[in-house]
Amino acid sequence: MSKPLLYSCWMSSCAWRVRIALHLKQIDFNVKTISILKTGEPGDQYSEEFEKINPMKYIPALEIHGHTLIESLSIINYLEEAYPKRRLLPKDIFQRTKARAISDVICSGIQPLQNLKVQKFSRPDGNLNFEWASFWISQGFSSLENILKESTGDYCVGNEITMADCCLVPQVANARRYKIEVSSYPTIARIDKALQDHEAFRKAHPSQQPDFPKEVPASFASQFK
Amino acid sequence: MSKPLLYSCWMSSCAWRVRIALHLKQIDFNVKTISILKTGEPGDQYSEEFEKINPMKYIPALEIHGHTLIESLSIINYLEEAYPKRRLLPKDIFQRTKARAISDVICSGIQPLQNLKVQKFSRPDGNLNFEWASFWISQGFSSLENILKESTGDYCVGNEITMADCCLVPQVANARRYKIEVSSYPTIARIDKALQDHEAFRKAHPSQQPDFPKEVPASFASQFK
Question: Is the ipTM above a cut-off of 0.85?
Fold first, then answer.
């Protein structure tokens, strides 16, 4: 069998979630880097070539066992079912539901409102909108902090790393990018810190990706400082 | 055991998804109606009382077996595991992943961008923004139509009703509300039509909810015409 192929980009928090899940499950995979900026080139997520892979024109996408999977949480759910060994959902049904709910809070309630396309559409000049992004992330983090206070142990849900943690760490990085003081959310900050040194999270980090630039663009300065 | 209690509102497409799933699974439940508009009253999703139920200040929430569940897809996943009898995910793992991906496209890629809070934030005067909502739904539907063309049989994924159908029908209603010509997306329109007469979908319809008003507000005219 050929290795799974992940369409990924160092800048994308959605692809990052899937990279963490793949590394946690110790699945060996190849990466095809795709730009999430509109470049007009074939390697751009808005290109005709990529639209055939994902009609939503978003990364990530995962080619695996002859199928192309889209949507980060759907991909992680697939990995969880197909590779059950290192599980990303707790055994208890209510803990499992909590892990899914936290993942949905991030993937439906926070990230979509701050993604590049929406930021750019929110401004007449079509540029990044830091104010817009930080408003939605701050609102979401205030709620998420209260949710996590109830569910956390070492990580988002109890003491096991779950799919919720795969979603949290990239979202915290986005918060830093948009200059949010993450320490204002002590539970979020603590969980994020606890995961930084985990091998799977280190391997999945943007700085470890083949398309990570030698010089970080200015708009990412606060994320990587 | 007491009946499950759904926090719901006739206006909310997210609560509608869960109502469909509950009816498909023939689970008897009670409804507590909550306003999704900012009313300043205790029955408002932004109230302090409701924030204790869901810190995200969104409906739906489901009280069941002594637990309070949030996030529509997480609730539907719970129902799928706890009440497996009338299944909402196909048996085949790739079909199941497809049903999840279509649900995520709607619940992360379309609905969050057109919800009331985001629409109102997008305008200096804080009013509804039909242009904003219809832009994001149209963009999403163009992609979704292409995804569904590949996966559909009678419904979103093959010939079984899945969680993707629970998400599709309320999103099509939102499209009509924001004056999108749904017939421009023939696969979406056909699936939506095929589900209208299904008993579970009829029972879950906004018009069958206890808080449905005698006179439909003007901003909903195109949805209910």
Answer: yes
